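Inverse folding, one chain.
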């Protein structure tokens, strides 16, 4: 058993409002383990809504609509549902009486056009709506394809009906609720295509499923499991997470809603370390995110400069090294506190052949890296090294020179020096 939701309203297609209703409905259906396979948005047109509903019934036994149940001329969902389910639209005096009573409770008379709301597909099951005036209903398809539940578009009314009427009804028809749980593994500095190359075969599995979602500089790996109990779902997710971590290693920096700044700040706090930053690339974004995450005290030096030359002048670095790796390393050392780590983000620079190089250098005491000097490290303490990704196009780490390189889309290269 699976579902489809159909959101009606020309204002949605015109971009005038954000469809938060669909998000709310999707979450509620997920919480009872009902798979949502499709979501369609259609304007206020009877013919097109009818067409969309017929397509929905052809592929989904449960169809839930939102919107178009009001008293105005363009509220045509009732007629479209009747058309799609093969039923006549009939007038209900009982329903009209309920609507009139609702208006009396507001201290207002019912307008003539509100009588439109007293029409329902013949044989439909009325679903009382104590949160508003729009009558809701369930209409079974005469051809046996499934049923359509029609709900209001007003968010407060929709949420009430979903919570108190629709979800209990669906759980009963499902023979009990299932569990759908999701966990997100967050990665950074490795592109979506490289992640796909590393775990593509796991993304073909059915339960749990694995999917990717790309963001600027990050790729989320989502694990979704369906089971009869929360414990069973957790076990499915844990097993898949272990397989993903085996392949992705320290490319995974956090889970669910954790951010890079939160993880970095937490690690600094746990180890009792401070951080100094020189940044000529992001306009101080790294420092801002660390502060916004609540770790202002961890940041003891924040040098944001428009050019590498300005950064060198700010930290008193003379002469400026000609080599980008050495330049970044010297800047990192210049802002390294006695009890912490120095970080330099330098670029883009030119090495004489390419003007799209960006350099990152990290400097700190030996305990930070478990070593010292300029030995290359592709592994952080307590975590797996990068080799599971090494060899994939665009990822080269742990070179003998002590410099790792990551190539991003568009040809931008990031060189990382641990010194």
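Residues assigned per position:
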């Amino acid at each position: 058993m699976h579902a489809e939701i159909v959101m009606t309203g020309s204002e949605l297609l015109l971009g005038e409002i954000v469809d938060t209703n669909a998000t709310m409905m999707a979450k509620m259906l997920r919480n009872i383990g009902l798979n949502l396979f499709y979501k369609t948005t259609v304007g206020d047109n009877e013919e097109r809504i009818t067409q969309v509903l017929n397509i929905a019934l052809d592929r989904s036994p449960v169809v839930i609509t939102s919107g178009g149940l009001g008293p105005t001329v363009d509220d045509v969902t009732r007629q479209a549902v009747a058309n799609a389910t093969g039923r006549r639209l009939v007038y209900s005096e009982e329903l009209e009486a309920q609507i009139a009573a609702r208006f009396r409770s507001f201290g207002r008379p019912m307008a003539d056009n509100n009588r439109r709301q007293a029409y329902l597909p013949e044989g439909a099951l009325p679903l009382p709506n104590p949160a508003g005036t729009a009558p809701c209903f369930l209409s079974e398809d005469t051809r046996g394809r499934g049923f359509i539940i029609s709900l209001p578009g007003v968010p407060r009314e929709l949420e009430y009906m979903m919570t108190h009427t629709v979800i209990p009804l669906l759980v009963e028809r499902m023979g009990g609720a299932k569990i759908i749980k999701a966990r997100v593994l967050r990665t950074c500095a490795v592109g979506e295509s490289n992640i796909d190359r590393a775990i593509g075969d796991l993304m073909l599995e059915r339960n749990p499923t694995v999917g990717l979602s790309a963001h600027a500089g990050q790729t989320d790996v989502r694990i979704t499991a369906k089971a009869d109990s929360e414990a069973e779902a957790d076990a499915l997710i844990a097993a898949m997470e272990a397989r993903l971590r085996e392949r992705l290693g320290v490319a995974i920096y956090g889970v669910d809603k954790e951010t890079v700044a939160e993880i970095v700040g937490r690690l600094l706090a746990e180890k009792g370390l401070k951080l100094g930053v020189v940044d000529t690339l992001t306009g101080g974004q790294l420092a801002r995110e660390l502060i916004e995450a609540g770790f202002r005290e961890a940041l003891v030096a924040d040098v944001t400069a428009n050019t590498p030359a300005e950064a060198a002048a700010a930290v008193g670095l003379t002469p400026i090294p000609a080599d980008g790796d050495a330049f970044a390393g010297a800047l990192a050392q210049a802002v390294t506190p006695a009890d912490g780590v120095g970080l330099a983000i330098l670029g883009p620079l030119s090495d004489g052949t390419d003007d799209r190089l960006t350099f990152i250098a990290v400097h700190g005491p030996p305990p930070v890296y478990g070593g010292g000097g300029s030995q290359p490290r592709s592994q952080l303490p307590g975590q797996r090294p990068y080799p599971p990704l090494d060899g994939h196009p665009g990822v080269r780490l742990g070179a003998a020179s002590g410099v790792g390189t990551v190539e991003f889309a568009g040809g931008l290269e990031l060189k990382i020096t641990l010194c």
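Residues 367-415 have pLDDT under 50 and may be disordered. The CA atoms of residues 312 and 331 lie 7 Å apart.
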